[in-house]
Amino acid sequence: MKVRIAAVQYLLRPISDWDGFENQVRFTLKAAAEYKPNFVMLPEIFTSQLLSFMDQNQGIKDAVRRMHDYTPRYMELMAEIARKNNFYLIAGSHPNLRDGLLYNTAFMFSPHGEVFMQDKIHRTRWERDKWDTTAGDKLHLFQTDYGAISILICYDIEFPELARLVCEAGADILFVPSSTDDRQGFWRVRYCAQARAIENQVYVAMTSTVGNLPVEGLGMHYGQASIMTPSDFSFSRDGIAAEGVVNMEQVVIADVDLAALAQNRLNGTTIPLYDKRRDIYENPVEIVSARRGPRHP
Predict the structure, then answer these.
(1) Which of 127, 154, 158, 243 is catalytic?
(2) What's the pLDDT at 56?
(3) Looking at residue 198, which CATH number applies to its domain?
(4) Residue 297 included in any domain
(5) 64, 105, 202, 212: which one has the fewest Cβ atoms less than 10 Å from its Cβ?
């Protein structure tokens, strides 16, 4: 089965009201829809664009919690767009309150009108210290019309155990919505996403916020969307099916073949998804001293 993925490099620019946000989202996703994708992905916390017109006098911790007031509008808008265009929409992530706790949650909207959620599991220092978010505690594997997929939000892709768990459960594609403010942060996420594609023989789609906002901690962004493959003869030479231009507003498109993925997992040059020595992982690490002993005269 061939699957078309559209990863949106979303440009964060100051807006004056909700209508400014909705208009940009509709314009961007209309452009993506013209390519007839099966999946469309927006970046992590791209809804932080709303903070550019919200009162921040009480501090960023208070302001980000008031973003929850826009959650019903956000969900209605994204659900409508997914149904209208007949694609699965991984609508980035959005800060939302549940039982008084703030979560950074990726919402996925199906073309059938369903909504699914994946909370971010590992928080960055900024999310802990400045936003005071709560960590998610459950991974999901979503069985879609176009293969099994999982969502690992930004920092979560830097923990290989998470990707291995969902890939052993059957994931074909990992979606990684991210948001990074500097080049180093972007490359941490990108290199780890590429590694997850290789070590799990899985497709990984990643996208980032670009642009800037007059908001504490969100002033600058460095990003690039990419769709990555295992590194073998069946795929693109560098393991990159498509990638965008750094820090430009655009939509990155690639077709991936789930049949080629299944074949590679069985007959690839290497098959790391299945070659894992589980018996070794059950053994404790043996600590051996290799220090030089005391010198004698």
Answers:
(1) 154
(2) 80
(3) 3.60.110.10
(4) no
(5) 212
* Sign of the dihedral through C-alpha 36, 41, 47, 48: negative
DSSP state of 43: P
Q: How many CB atoms lie within 10 A of CB 128?
A: 12
Residue ranges making up the domain that contains 178: 2-281
Say which of 120, 127, 167, 243 is annotated catalytic. Answer: 120
Q: Is 208:223 a contact under the CB 8 Å cutoff?
A: yes
Is residue 74 situated within a structural domain?
A: yes
Is 154 considered catalytic here? Answer: yes
The overall pTM is greater than 0.90 = yes
What does the pLDDT average to over 134-144? 97
Q: Give the C-alpha separation, 79 to 62, whole Å.
A: 27
Integer Rg of the chain from CA? 20
> Is 41 within 8 Å of 90 (Cβ atoms)?
yes
Task: Return the DSSP state at 129.
Answer: I
Q: Is residue 64 part of a domain?
A: yes
Element (H, E) at 256: strand 250-257
Phi then psi for residue 110, to 5 deg, are -90, 160
Active-site residue, from 2, 30, 34, 44 = 44
> Do the domain assignments include residue 152?
yes
Strands (E), 75-182: 88-98, 101-109, 115-119, 142-144, 147-151, 173-178
Instruction: State yes or no: is 282 an active-site residue.
Output: no
The per-residue pLDDT for range 65-85, each reduced to its tens digit, is: 999 999 999 999 999 999 999
Number of domains in the chain: 1
